[in-house]
């Protein structure tokens, strides 16, 4: 399907309204979950742990970054179907990342960064910007997706121009933070 065929599809404003309500509920639930996971520690039976999760969920975040770049390439080449498929795959990676991240952080003690000097400043600057942009971007990522899904392509394009680089930064900075923190994880 060509871009012009995509652009000629009729917008579904009724569905968009329902999805925006769901967007608000999902965003609120995720923010509450992330806040609560800092205060909740679920003890696991002896011998069971989720210490294997950080490299997995970090890889999912990196995969989302690669998929986002592929999506950008596809839309620049005029292939909206491939673009949509890559974006949907990036969203799935991000959702599974979030699930793994939450499971790890509610079952394992927090890992502290042990570096010093300039590396400490770089790590915390990256981490703080990553956390803030991840929290702020979620409802806008979903809104951008909703605009596309409901055939509101002009709105989708306007949002995507500034949401895409933020999502990409979050998807790249997360794995970089993991790599910087990796030496301090317990075995």
Question: Which characteristics define this entry?
Answer:
187 residues; elongated; mainly alpha
Descriptive overview:
- The structure is a single chain.
- With 187 residues, the chain is mainly α.
- The protein has 6 helices and no strands.
- The protein has helices spanning 3-7, 13-37, 53-76, 80-107, 118-149, 153-181.
- Helix 2 (13-37) packs antiparallel against helix 5.
- The longest helix is centred in the last third of the chain and has 32 residues, at 118-149.
- The N and C termini lie far apart (50 Å).
- The mean pLDDT is 92.
**DSSP summary: helix tally:** 6
Strand content: under 5%
What's the gyration radius in Å?
A: 18 Å
Biggest sheet statistics: none
Quaternary structure annotation: single chain
Order of helices and strands: HHHHHH
Q: Helix/strand/pairing class, anyone?
A: mainly alpha
Average pLDDT: 92
Silhouette: elongated
SS elements, strand count: 0
Please mark out the parts with pLDDT under 50 across 5 or more consecutive residues, or reply none: none
In whole angstroms, the N-to-C terminal distance is 50 Å
Helix proportion: over 70%
